[in-house]
Design a protein that fits this description.
Layout lengths: L1 H22 L22 H20 L5 E4 L5 E3 L3 E11 L7 H14 L4 E3 L2 H11 L9 H13 L6 E14 L2 E14 L5 E12 L3 H8 L5
Parallel strand pairs: 3-4, 3-5
Antiparallel strand pairs: 1-2, 5-6, 6-7
Helix pairs in contact: 2-3, 4-5
């Protein structure tokens, strides 16, 4: 009798867990513009990368918009004609943060590229052209920082009818500060613009700090087997 009662009580958590699994359901909703986005509980998400991209690109555009505009020719009325947009070869996004950003890497590339395309300051090359150029010259993105390789790559694109003025790199980094099980992580998105003719570069960054906290409920569940 005691043995039967023990088996009943021992099997109760498994039965409850099975019932809980069967009772769970997955659902989705359309997130409309202006709706509150989900906050990633373990790592960065759209709520982090969106503001970083907006700020870093805005700083880069503002810095270059303030540069003196060189006049290259005059129209029939004698009015000066400004230089055309700077042709940018956006090489890619390098993740050096503590997190695996997964599909956000390509998402960041597309968002930054779209932001640049919407401005009169820059004219980015199509990504397919950039990838094809790297493949044909057998160069990796990180090798383009070497002057000889930079000139080789720029010359190849010019022969293909796609001359460039600048290389653009985006790098995501992070730093973590821990306090027991809670921690804060600072994220930095750096945009580095390199002149392919002179080697001069401009660098602009955006920062965001996000806190990650373990709730008391999570700690209780971790120490109470019947709650799992």
């Amino acid at each position: 009798m005691l043995r039967r009662a023990f088996l009943v009580h021992a099997g109760a958590p498994a039965i409850l867990a099975l019932a809980g699994c069967r009772g769970q359901r997955q659902f989705a909703r359309i997130v409309n513009p202006g709706d509150k986005a989900l906050m990633g509980s373990h790592q960065a998400g759209a709520e982090t990368f969106g503001p970083l991209v907006d700020e870093a690109v805005a700083k880069l555009l503002a810095r270059n918009a303030e540069a003196p505009v060189q006049q290259v020719s005059y129209d029939d009325a004698g009015e000066p004609i400004p230089c055309p947009p700077k042709r940018i070869c956006f090489v890619g996004v390098e993740n050096k943060s503590a997190e695996d950003i997964g599909d956000f890497k390509d998402e960041l590339y597309q968002v930054i590229d779209t932001r640049l395309l919407q401005t009169p300051v820059f004219q980015p090359l199509n990504r397919r052209v950039v990838d094809a150029g790297l493949l044909e010259t057998r160069l990796r993105p990180d090798q383009l920082c070497i002057p000889e390789h930079m000139r080789q790559f720029a010359a190849h694109l010019e022969r293909e009818g796609e001359p460039i003025d600048y290389l653009l790199y985006a790098t995501l980094t992070s730093g973590t500060t821990r306090e027991n099980k809670d921690y804060e992580r600072s994220y930095r998105l750096t945009m580095e613009l390199i002149d392919v003719r002179t080697g001069d570069y401009d660098k602009q960054s955006a920062d965001l700090v996000k806190g990650y906290h373990h709730s008391r409920l999570s700690r209780w569940r971790a120490t109470n087997p019947l709650s799992r």
